[in-house]
Design brief:
2 copies of one chain form a homodimer.
Chain A (H helix, E strand, L loop, with lengths): L5 E2 L23 E8 L3 E9 L3 E3 L5 H4 L2 E3 L2 E5 L3 E5 L1 H14 L7 H14 L11 E10 L11 E11 L10 E5 L17 H16 L4 E5 L7 E4 L3 E6 L2 E4 L10 H12 L4 E3 L4 H9 L3 E8 L3 E10 L2 E4 L7 H15 L9 E5 L2
Parallel strand pairs in A: 1-3, 10-11, 10-17, 14-15
Antiparallel strand pairs in A: 2-3, 2-9, 5-8, 6-7, 6-8, 7-19, 8-9, 11-12, 13-14, 13-16, 16-17, 17-18
Chain lengths: 357, 357
């Protein structure tokens, strides 16, 4: 159905950092995957080529009007090869973003096949140390050479890969979160549920301002009432109140996280009451005052589970679970990373193996 | 204060299209201006070089997280050289955007000097035919090679230039506008008042959907109540109701247009009552029904003045001024383009001359 993926290998491989010297997103593998789109040919010319700079005309649409999509997932080294975690969900979200951004969709099976082929070629780059992984970043840039504002007629699809350190080298650890009441990340009718650059660019100011106050991230409130909890940093957010688990409904302005979806499934499987609904920050504050706020944590591809140790809402500093990682966060983290790395049984068939040479 | 601008000229100039064959934003001049930023040196290495592709590492921040700024202005050929229109206002807005997007500011005088030097080098490219101009596009791309989400530590500033046709080859002409009630462009607390890619990417879907219905552009309503008028397409919007001119207040989600500001000044100077305030779409519809909606038009750098001939709000098709360009729109267009091209006296000192060789 799709063209064969050509492979052009590097003459000389780069030096690979030792597993113990990895960080996040600074080192890239020897190769990258690229594919082009134009209105006549559709997506075409898929290939794995040496990692190299993109040549963009300075009038390319993406340099001006932000018409871009990205995704993020990880490959873990397993006993027999490499494991991907629910890559078909990335493909689905990728196309949802593409539709919102007027970018042509891609065959979801081919999207996954492209990822697998890129990982296969650079398989030596998948680190083996506990907690490490190969971070995979597929993205699309609109590159028609035109300054008029319209959906581009040309696009470039690229997959780059970066071996990354364990997110928690000293074990999972709570963060301090500032509830943002001035800046807004997204609003219904906008692009909040799409994985596109503009949402992230718009979040930098609040993040910087929280960092200046000594906080790790912000908790975003909705853009309409500025009352309902949406996301934490670039992650989805969960609360444990009175033994129940509560997480914001998606509602068009929240990113549909794959970790979020997996966590909901696991919690329901573990017989927790999971409520997916609007949650006001005032209710969180009240639950805290009443001693009913038992846990809070973020979920995302990078950290998997990120416990929240403090929430600062207009000066009310809510310390949660004595700034310790809670029981639910702990169990989710252990089980989910276990499934992702193939060390724990995968009853959901979430992982997909890439056979390596 | 700033470094001297180096100039490296092309060996062989490109063929220039004839003034009568120009369009918008597809043809670019022989040269471009570039400058780099890093945390140690600040903005440095300003130069005019041959127009050429940008080499971006595929992990450059702008390819993923949309941390970008742009501006737009025009140079018109005049009797003694070229005229810029209020470039210091572009410099001011550029820095406002930069602050919102966590991008380092630039000395506003140097910003204008860079534009003048770029135009001077490519002065042969300024077309002469009535209504034509040299469109100037300054922009910044974040280009730190890092997949972590944070303000970049490296940036590239670029100015490209494109000779453009008259916006109205057959004279100023009304457009059909669809009032958008599903998609939202911006919300207070967001990035709506910044000239950054994400706002424009987010607008494509509504624009495409309006085009499918046979409309030229959308009228955006506010993101909170979805009731108050914000912008039309990528322009500011004005209404004439009962002889008074009404335009939306900026309020954080509306782009502070330089044409908008100039139009307000001129209208007040002409003794119109100008009200800068919230305007609900229901009030517009009521004024239409009562026969009090006399004119409507957009303002922006590309079209200068764009009369609105029809507004479709939930099926109510409001034909305005019999689909003819109104008196106010007409007079504004004539006067403003006259000032910009040096053909009409400039009582506001808005134009700035670039002496040419």
């Amino acid at each position: 159905m799709m063209e064969e993926i050509k492979v052009e290998k590097v003459d000389k491989r780069k030096a690979r950092p030792a597993d113990g010297e990895l960080s996040f997103g600074r080192t890239f593998t020897d190769h990258m995957f690229t594919m082009e789109y134009d209105e006549n040919k559709g997506w075409h010319d898929p290939k794995v080529v040496p990692y190299q700079p993109l040549e963009l005309d300075p009038a390319a649409a993406c340099c001006h009007y932000g018409q871009t999509t990205f995704e993020g997932l990880k490959a873990y080294r397993s006993n027999n090869g490499a494991l991907l975690f629910r890559p078909e969900k990335n493909a689905e979200r990728f196309n949802n973003t593409n539709r919102r951004m007027c970018i042509p969709e891609m065959d979801p099976e081919f999207f996954v096949q492209a990822i697998k082929e890129a990982v296969r070629v650079d398989q030596d780059w998948i680190p083996a140390k506990e907690g490490t992984s190969l971070y995979i970043r597929p993205f699309i840039l609109a590159n028609e050479v035109y300054l008029g504002l319209k959906p581009s007629s040309h696009y470039k699809f690229v997959i780059i890969m970066s071996p990354v350190a364990a997110y928690y080298p000293q074990g999972i650890k709570p963060t301090r979160i500032y509830v943002e009441t001035e800046y807004v990340r997204a609003v219904r009718g906008g692009t909040g549920s799409a994985k596109t650059g503009g949402n992230y660019a718009g979040s930098l100011k609040a993040q910087s301002s929280a960092a200046d106050k000594g906080y790790d991230e912000v908790l975003w409130l909705d853009g309409v009432e500025r009352e309902y909890v949406e996301e934490v940093g670039a992650m989805n957010v969960f609360f444990k109140i009175d033994g129940k688990i509560v997480t914001p409904e998606l509602g068009g302005s929240v990113l549909p996280g794959i970790t979020r979806d997996s966590v909901i499934t696991m919690l329901e499987d573990w017989d927790y009451d999971v409520e997916v609904r609007k949650i006001s920050i005032e209710d969180i504050a009240q639950a805290y005052k009443d001693g009913r706020l038992e846990e809070a944590f973020g979920t995302g591809t990078a950290a998997i589970i990120s416990p929240i140790g403090e929430l600062n809402y207009n000066g009310l500093k809510m310390e949660i679970n004595d700034f310790e990682t809670g029981e639910v966060a702990s169990k989710l983290y252990k089980t989910l990373t276990g499934i992702q790395t193939g060390k724990v049984d995968d009853p959901y068939n979430w992982t997909e193996e890439i056979p390596l040479d």
